[in-house]
């Protein structure tokens, strides 16, 4: 591991001031420390933010809930307000990692965790995400776990988070603070970026900005489900996951949101499928067509074509079950 300086921030402003240049914020460290051991991440300074007052979970005046960036994943998943008002989020979190990691990992860190692509972790492999403009060995390598949607010829890595798939479906908002006290609110579906030609630029965060909280909206449509398919029952990343919110009124789809994990460089919202379903009869033929639409733009590689059919079937099954048709 490369040598680095360590500082402990006393305030949010102090943390941001300390983060100028080649620095990383340290919270749970469940992903960052691994990356530093592999020398994928080589920060000159770690800014410890664990003592900042950002760990609360608070009701909002207009409804909704604010999750502090330093709230632990386990804390969020077991909070009574989250369990009863946002069960989709609680289930997604409990489907991720192990209990030990959930006790350590934070909300802000979860948003910023990096891909588990083996070529990204392998210093001997070509990886545009780790070393820009060096190529991508995953394109023609073993790419079973890689992206089928939204990828590019520069990168086909997937975002690993379960929590983030749920937050995308919930239309959450990410609150950040930057140098000079400038604050921004970023819609969650815009927070992560697709790879394009710059897969090393993964989020809309600007230099020095710190995630301070995530806001959950007050009004959510109908029933919710999070379903994850993986190679083993515990402590495994998704091959495909789906987060669905569905409200059916008088036999028609009044509102729907569909987000996918394990298939793209970011949590993937199936907007065209949602548009197709809204106002349509809520039956199995409609759900089948919407599921097909959700993966219509998929571009699988040599080893991951199964993900297209898996995602389609998972969406169809989840919609059918939420509508009470199974």
UniProtKB/TrEMBL annotation:
PROSITE patterns: FAD_PCMH (PS51387)
Pfam assignment, any one: FAD_binding_5
Segments forming domain FAD-binding PCMH-type: 1-221
Top-level taxon: Bacteria
Protein name: FAD binding domain-containing protein
Classification of source organism: Bacteria, Bacillati, Actinomycetota, Actinomycetes, Streptosporangiales
